[in-house]
UniProtKB/TrEMBL annotation:
Membrane-spanning segments: 38-61, 73-92, 113-133, 139-158, 189-209
UniProt key word Transmembrane helix: yes
Keywords (A to Z) from UniProt: Membrane, Transmembrane, Transmembrane helix
Listed name of the protein: Transporter
Length: 214
């Protein structure tokens, strides 16, 4: 029979064990409230790889298609991939949002609405000018405007949430976008698919690994 007070579960924790327990609980809380980085970055990374990869196969690097994919088919593939990614991340965001209240929830709501209005404005602007351009340049205009919105909102989000990594990702997206625009439609599609989409997948995997080891 174990004497009272000698039970392993009843003994006082040492300072080292207490610190470990606090660190573990903080990591679990961060995982719970911060969401799964691989779910976000990985989902959008795959969508961009597939969608802009289809455009890359359509344009090619020298103006000759690498696969029998029309511009309309490439656009449809991109839109379906983005819609699926949006559905997944919205579902995850709604579940996460039910656990967060107060100023953080308000900031998140305003930031989410900013994405909606920014892309609405991008659609109006792109729709006005795309009819004045050749098909390849019109496609490049739509793509570069979309990536521009994403890069700016990443950097703005970094300021809102105090996330330096998010700011650097926004800078990286902007750099890929500018280089791609200068190089042409095929190169732009390749850089966005591999450099941004592939980069998102790598970032998600690295952040997931850091969470597990935190």
């Amino acid at each position: 029979m174990v004497p009272p007070g000698d039970d392993e579960d009843d003994r006082a924790l040492s300072p080292e064990e207490t610190l470990r327990l606090i660190a573990t609980q903080r990591a679990e809380t961060a995982r719970f409230l911060g969401g799964d980085p691989l779910l976000f970055y990985g989902t959008w990374g795959v969508a961009w790889v597939i969608g802009f990869g289809a455009y890359f196969l359509h344009y090619g690097l020298s103006g000759r298609a690498y696969a029998p994919i029309s511009g309309g088919q490439a656009l449809m593939i991109l839109l379906v991939a983005l819609a699926l990614a949006l559905a997944v991340t919205m579902y995850a965001g709604i579940r996460q949002g039910t656990q967060v209240r107060g100023p953080s929830q308000a900031r998140g709501t305003m930031y989410g609405l900013t994405w909606f209005f920014a892309f609405f404005a991008q659609g109006v602007i792109g729709g006005h000018f795309s009819g004045m351009l050749p098909p390849a340049q019109a496609g490049l205009l739509w793509s570069c405007l979309s990536i521009l919105v994403v890069s700016i909102l990443f950097m703005a989000g970094a300021a809102v949430w105090n996330q330096p990594l998010m700011f650097l990702i926004g800078v990286w997206i902007s750099a890929m976008n500018m280089i791609g625009v200068a190089a042409g439609p095929g190169w732009h599609a390749l850089l966005v698919a591999a450099g941004v989409g592939g980069g998102f997948i790598v970032i998600g995997l690295v952040l997931r690994l850091r969470q597990r080891t935190a």
